[in-house]
């Protein structure tokens, strides 16, 4: 029997619906349940073939448990090693590299020094920063947000340099991004499962949370939807996420990827609505069952994005053998 587990926290609607849907499918030799974590012993395999992770971003103990489970052969969704390494600023850099439009963005040092540092810890940093260049490049108004944060926590709209510096002082030890504002005419949030299974939802981030998923919206041009779908696939295959959401703001007909580091995205029926909820439950169940069937005990069963896998696959350049030279000898008497 292969077990599919889901690890979750305060959310209530998606996890139980996911468990019920997997079990309703009655796949031979596969069952789903809520994960139970007891003693976590190093290198000891877990009982689960697949675990859907919805909470380890907030609970470091769970992240350590999942890495240990993965090394024992569990197919963890999403890859806990990559999730630990990833952040939003890198996401933007990768997007530029693979040709997906993103807002102009720079990263700012934290307003307060990290623990156990002093002024000598920053002797390599220019002071002051070249603020004139930053302001010319980004423009105002702009958005300031944590480079590694999730959701809309500690997100600021800044109108001018003085406003930026005043709000930056509130961010304490957070490392922030300063990002160009995209004044959009349309906005989309997309579920992305398995790298290429995309569900596009019209979205209004300026509405209250429970009213952001637009109902009965006007039709969208097929060309734009196809472009958004293609960008979703490019981003998630590059990053290696099995379960993610990608947000796009459309300006002058061009979809800009705004946020695409959401490996435990909102899937609550009360915010996403019944149709979107039904889609994510059904397709997450199918993804988990597929991974359970492919899972091989004792082997690595994680997804690695092309950014990592392409680097690993690159051949190591071999040094040319040194040319042999005849030894010069001198005779002496």
Task: Give a quick set of tags describing it.
D-amino Acid Aminotransferase, Chain A, domain 1; 333 residues; Rossmann fold; alpha/beta; four-stranded antiparallel β-sheet; four-stranded parallel β-sheet; disordered C terminus; globular; 3 domains
Structural commentary:
This protein folds into three domains: 2-83 and 291-300, Rossmann fold (3-Layer(aba) Sandwich), CATH 3.40.50.20; 104-180, Dna Ligase, domain 1 (2-Layer Sandwich), CATH 3.30.1490; 186-260, ATP-grasp fold, B domain (D-amino Acid Aminotransferase, Chain A, domain 1, 2-Layer Sandwich), CATH 3.30.470.20. The chain is built from ten helices and twelve strands. It has helices spanning 13-24, 60-71, 80-85, 88-98, 131-138, 161-168, 222-239, 269-272, 274-294, 306-313; strands spanning 2-7, 30-34, 48-53, 75-77, 105-108, 142-146, 156-158, 176-180, 186-193, 197-202, 243-251, 254-259. The strands form three sheets. The chain has a four-stranded parallel sheet with strand order 2-1-3-4, sandwiched between helices. It has a four-stranded antiparallel sheet with strand order 5-8-6-7, with helices on both faces. A four-stranded antiparallel sheet has the order 10-9-11-12, with helices on both faces. Helix 1 (13-24) packs across helix 9 and helix 4 (88-98) packs across helix 7 (222-239). The radius of gyration is 24 Å and the shape is globular. It starts with a strand and ends in a 20-residue tail after the last helix.
């Amino acid at each position: 029997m292969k077990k599919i587990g889901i690890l979750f926290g305060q959310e209530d609607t998606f996890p139980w619906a996911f468990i019920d849907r997997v079990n309703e499918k009655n796949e031979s030799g596969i069952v789903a349940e809520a994960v139970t974590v007891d003693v976590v012993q190093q290198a000891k395999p877990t009982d689960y073939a697949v675990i859907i992770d919805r909470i380890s971003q907030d609970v470091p103990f769970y992240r350590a448990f999942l890495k240990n489970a993965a090394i024992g052969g569990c197919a963890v969704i999403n890859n806990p090693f990559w999730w630990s390494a990833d952040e939003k600023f890198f996401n933007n850099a990768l997007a530029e590299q693979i040709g997906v439009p993103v807002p102009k963005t720079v990263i700012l040092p934290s307003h307060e020094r990290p623990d156990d540092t002093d002024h000598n810890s920053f002797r390599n940093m220019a002071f002051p920063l070249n603020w004139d260049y930053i302001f010319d490049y980004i423009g105002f108004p702009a958005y300031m947000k944590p480079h590694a944060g999730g959701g809309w926590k500690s997100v600021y709209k800044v109108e001018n340099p003085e406003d930026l510096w005043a709000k930056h002082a509130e961010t304490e030890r957070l490392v922030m991004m300063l990002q160009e504002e995209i004044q959009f005419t349309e906005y989309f949030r997309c579920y992305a499962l398995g790298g290429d299974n995309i569900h596009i939802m019209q979205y209004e981030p300026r509405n209250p949370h429970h009213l952001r998923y637009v109902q009965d919206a006007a039709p969208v041009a097929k060309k734009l939807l196809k472009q958004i779908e293609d960008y979703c696939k490019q981003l998630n295959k590059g990053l290696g996420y099995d379960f993610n959401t990608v947000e796009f703001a459309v300006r002058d007909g061009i979809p800009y990827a705004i946020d695409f580091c959401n490996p435990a995205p909102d899937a609550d029926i009360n915010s996403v609505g019944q149709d979107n909820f039904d889609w994510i439950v059904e397709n997450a169940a199918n993804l988990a069952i597929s991974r359970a069937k492919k899972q091989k005990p004792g082997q690595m069963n994680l997804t690695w994005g092309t950014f990592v896998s392409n680097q690993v696959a690159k051949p190591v350049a071999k040094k040319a053998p040194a040319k042999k030279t005849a030894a010069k000898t001198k005779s002496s008497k």
